[in-house]
What we know:
The protein is of the alpha/beta class. It has helices at 17-44, 61-74, 87-95, 158-170, 184-193, 243-259, and strands at 6-8, 13-15, 49-55, 78-84, 101-106, 113-115, 119-128, 148-151, 178-180, 196-201, 218-222, 229-237, 263-264.
Amino acid sequence: MGVRLFERSSRRVTITEAGTLLLAQARELLAGSEAFMATARRIRDGETGLLRAALSPDIAGETVAALLTEFQRRHLGLELVLLELTTAQQLARLASHDLDVGIVHHPCDVSGLELGPVLRRELGVLLPRTVAAAELDEVPLSALAGHDLILFPRADAPALYDDLLTACARNGFTPAAVRHGQGASFVHGLLLSADAVAFGPRDTRPEQVHGQRPDSGVVWRPLAGAPLAWRHSVAWPKGRGDAAVKAFTEAATHALRTTADATSDVPSRPLYLRPASEYWL
């Protein structure tokens, strides 16, 4: 530093006047360095910084709000950037490390990923109030024969799309045609005018969807035997499961359980993809 800080002899070491003048600043520098390293450790361990997370478009607003509230309660020091992405988009961004964590639909390609608890949301059917099946307390899939089916685009979650159509075919329902749509208002319009039906969990009932009244002309009914379900879990790249990801996983699981009727699911088969689908349309 160009100045003498200490006077040294064989008997003692004493601080110089220059050293005395620099001592206070030296202590500040050391304290700042320790704080810097502590912050670096918190970022490394996921205790502060930025978490890039995603939800699939079918997650209801009430669940999104509950997730955000619970996450902030668990992890006040972290900034959460929440995106709406399909399962296919999430998998691509997780693979390219442009996303830290997401809620995906199963089945999907989970190679290279770690998963939180798998949760099941049983699907019912949305259908026009005027059709005969709307009078039933529970609707068998076979009772929907002759109707078109409104489904999300296949590119959003190809394996899930094929799984749903396979389950429908096994249970006596082969749609006359498949129409693609996701937005609540768009699907509602198709239901009323296109002789079509759609699948959705209990939180997609007309009275729970923003802008729709209970007398909107569309009803939700459970499916007999509960043959269809969404299966979700939080997913993140292997080795990325730090405190932030853990907090998001816990918050998402809690929100789905408390607001979306999600229950624990023990898969009857592995979560990786089957070699081929049984049914294509």
